[in-house]
Amino acid sequence: MDMNATLVQIEPTIESDKLAVLLGGNKQRRLSRSINTKVTTLEQSLDRLIQPRLHYRIVKAKTKDDATVHLEDGVEFRSAKLSRALRDAEKIVCFIGTIGFDVEKEIGRLLDEHKLSEAYILDAMASVAVEDMVEQFHQDMEAKCRNESKTATFRFSPGYCDWPITEQKKLFSVFDAEEIGVELLDSCLMEPRKSISGVFGIAPPGSAPHNPCLHCREKNCTARRT
Ligand code: SF4
Question: What is the 8-class DSSP label of residue 204?
Fold first, then answer.
């Protein structure tokens, strides 16, 4: 199997309303003036520290049944909701993105110096940054698909919805771990910590993306898509 992945480098942006959700902003998703001042200062550090890198591979989907997506290279993803969402997909985009280690080192340094609020805010900013990078990647791929009259499905990550986190191992098996610069720990968490892995499908013209959230009764899910 050809394990070569494509590398893209996307500069993330920190959207203040998303940051406000993580940092407990008010109902209008606004941060207090004191937090805003710290965010502005830390933005310069973050720009210097992040090394955005996202690798992806496009693998043909072989079959899908009620609970499993079978890829042509033998990998099987087990999740009923994922299988449903990818039901029309001919190809599956597997991706792993990270913003690197340096931001974590800086968070550790701030903690060592007992600058707890700066460490907490920088951690939240890094979370928003890696999510934004992955979202931009997904939107770019959606636009490319639209240009070819195809459809990109919603994206999923192991550990969310009904896709167990242990399936990270299968997703990582699609990549050459050394090439992507992200390590999968025994706990199935990733290192660097600010990394996101996932999949979405590419479906032929005329397919409508299936959003499993529309029929899901899970009340407390933070990943719900409207
Ligand atoms: S609401 Fe949450 S659990 Fe339900 S389908 Fe959507 S992502 Fe999955």
Answer: -
For the CA of 225, the nearest atom of ligand 1 = 6
CB neighbourhood size of 23 (10 A): 21
Ligand 1 pocket residue status of 84, Cβ below 6 Å? no
The protein residue whose alpha carbon is closest to atom 6 in ligand 1 is 213
111 lines ligand 1 (CB under 6 A): no
The structural domains of the chain, with segments of one domain joined by +, span 6-215
Q: What average pLDDT values come out for the chain (226 residues) when binned by 10 residues?
A: 85 91 76 90 94 97 88 93 93 97 97 96 97 98 95 95 95 92 95 97 89 87 83
Fold (CATH) for 6-215: NADH Oxidase (3.40.109)
